[in-house]
Amino acid sequence: MNMHQKEMLAANITAVRGKIAEAAQRVGRRPEEITLVAVSKTKPLEIVKLAYELGITHFGENRVQEAVPKIAAFHLSDIHWHMIGHLQKNKVGKVIGQFECIHSIDSLDLAETLNRHAASFNLTGGQRQPVLLQVNISGETSKEGIEPDTVISLTRQITTLEHLEIQGLMTLAPLVDNPEKARPVFRALRELRDRLHNEVPECSWQHLSMGMTDDYQVAIEEGATIVRIGRAIFGERIKKGTSQ
Ligand SMILES: *Cc1c(COP(=O)(O)O)cnc(C)c1O
């Protein structure tokens, strides 16, 4: 860690916060409505700590085996960890009580497994584990997520699981050269959320987790309440294996 890196990180965070505020203001929203989750996957703990010193309090990780040691080493009371990547059933036991929110619920099977683990884990004050349902809006076969047509019926089943709390929806937009091309995906997620709000009113539906480095401003214009930003904050990731 050198001074140069810290200055770069500070400048990146300031720039991202500025663009979040601009996008919010363009559509008459307040910037405080939007939670910035800094995606720290593949980044060492020293960088995470530096980002925290620069005011970042929400961090996103996509792999359980990478996230768990980071959380164990860095879990101050004002730090919030988000699980944003695909969750394998055999790793579910490790995530309960670790993450403020799990963004990647994409099947009943996964929800039931998570619910069973949450039941045996004593969450503070009988709290439920907050989760988001990941929806494959773009329909790309390469993407995880629930088919939009089946979200309502799946939601009804998941709401019967007493240790989970559905708080909203998450999606990944397709990789496109122009962020405007992602707009229909974000808009469709918002419209789906509005439908769910009517159909399943017992959930809050307060969160739309959408928008990454290349498209977060468009996502905010379309109603994102959580943006998940990696490269614009931490710089390019070194490609290795399955991490994106
Ligand atoms: C890596 C990742 C991000 C962040 O992507 P950037 O393009 O670096 O901003 C957001 N969401 C998920 C699910 C990711 O895996």
Question: How is this fold's topology laid out?
Answer:
Elements: H1 3-26, E1 35-39, H2 45-53, E2 58-61, H3 64-73, E3 80-83, E4 101-105, H4 108-120, E5 129-134, H5 151-158, E6 164-170, H6 183-199, E7 207-209, H7 216-221, E8 226-229, H8 231-234
Parallel strand pairs: 1-2, 1-8, 2-3, 3-4, 4-5, 5-6, 6-7
The structure holds pyridoxal-5'-phosphate (PLP).
Salient structural properties:
16% strand, 8 helices, 8 strands, 244 residues, globular, binds pyridoxal-5'-phosphate, alpha/beta
Question: What's the short version?
Answer:
About 35% of the residues lie in helices and about 15% in strands. The chain has about 240 residues and is of the alpha/beta class. The chain has an eight-stranded parallel sheet with strand order 7-6-5-4-3-2-1-8.
Spatial order of strands in the largest sheet: 7-6-5-4-3-2-1-8
Instruction: Give the low-confidence spans.
Output: none
**Which ligands does the model contain, each kind named once?**
pyridoxal-5'-phosphate
- How would the global form be characterised? globular
The chain-level structural class is alpha/beta
The whole-angstrom Rg is 17 Å
**Helix share of residues?**
25-40%
What oligomeric state best describes the polypeptide chains here?
single chain
Beta fraction:
15-25%
Number of helices: 8
One letter per element, helices H and strands E, the order comes to HEHEHEEHEHEHEHEH
Mean pLDDT: 94
The end-to-end distance, rounded to whole angstroms, is 24 Å
- Characterize the largest beta sheet: strand count, sense, and whether it forms a barrel: 8 strands, parallel
Strand tally is: 8
